[in-house]
Amino acid sequence: MARRSRIESFSNPLVKRMRLLREKRHRRAEGLFLAEGLRIATEAREAGVLPLWLFLAEEGAAHPLAQALVEAVLASGGEVIDTTPAILSKLSGKDNAQTIVGIYAEPKTQLADLDRDAAPIWLVAERLRDPGNLGTMLRTGDAVGAGGLILLDESTDPYAVEAVRASMGAIFTQKLVIARWEEFLPWLRQGSGQLVATWLGADTQDYQAVRYAAPTFILTGNESQGMPPEYAAAADVRVKMPMMGKADSLNAAVATAVMAYEVLNQRRNQ
């Protein structure tokens, strides 16, 4: 039943339970994750996603968007907890915590759940390790109207506090799937979809010389090692971006953004 309560004690069982969500094993065990900040919580609400528990400090509760969020959470059967900035810091692990922290159910989206034709662009990242890059890719996907992000193999946890924070709310607007390469490639080949790998090789083409077909799946490799050769070989086309300076590669999230906007611009100019 929906209710509103107040918690001011660090020893409260719910506070102890929720602060453990900063650790991956507890997130997996609970099927929950934490998102902080009014902006992210509002993005989630507008995407139709509400927290199961909403913690908020007094200074944040007066904002009209916070009031709308509280009403929505209570109407959905969630729990609103008025608390202190110190408790919010304990939950988020930050000294200067935001005035709102939401606890959300982790989506369990699978490849089979995706409608590949629902969007012209999909992002695919292989062994992505940096939560900041993951969050930036989600934001890029939201910006270009992508359907979502497919994380392959041993990638960083997308529901870590750092990744959720870096997504700036896009984790709620983009489909997110965690899969193995051995699962992804057969699924892709069962339907439409052009797989485009960012790759340096003998048959690599300039990224602006290729005509991209929808839906386009943009595959980006690991930040430091790139992708395995067999992954690149399985792609329909391999592309590269010119490097005019001394650096030999772009940041993985930046390269993904450049590619995504090229695909978007081709569609806009058709």
Instruction: Give unreliable regions as ranges.
Output: none
What is the percentage of strand-forming residues?
Answer: 15-25%
The number of helices is: 11
The largest sheet has its strands arranged as 8-7-6-11-9-12-10
What is the element string, with H for helices and E for strands?
Answer: EHHEHEHHEHEEHEHEHEEEHEH
Q: Judging from the principal axes of the Cα atoms, what is the shape?
A: elongated
User: How many β strands by DSSP?
Assistant: 12
Using only CA atoms, what is the Rg? 20 Å
Which assembly state applies to the chains in this document? Answer: single chain
- Main sheet attributes: strand count, strand direction, barrel closure: 7 strands, parallel
Structural class: alpha/beta
Write structural notes for this entry.
The protein has 270 residues and is of the alpha/beta class. 37% of the residues lie in helices and 21% in strands. The chain has 11 helices and 12 strands. The strands form 2 sheets. A 7-stranded parallel beta sheet has the order 8-7-6-11-9-12-10, sandwiched between helices. It starts with a strand and ends with a helix. The model has no long low-confidence stretch (mean pLDDT 94).
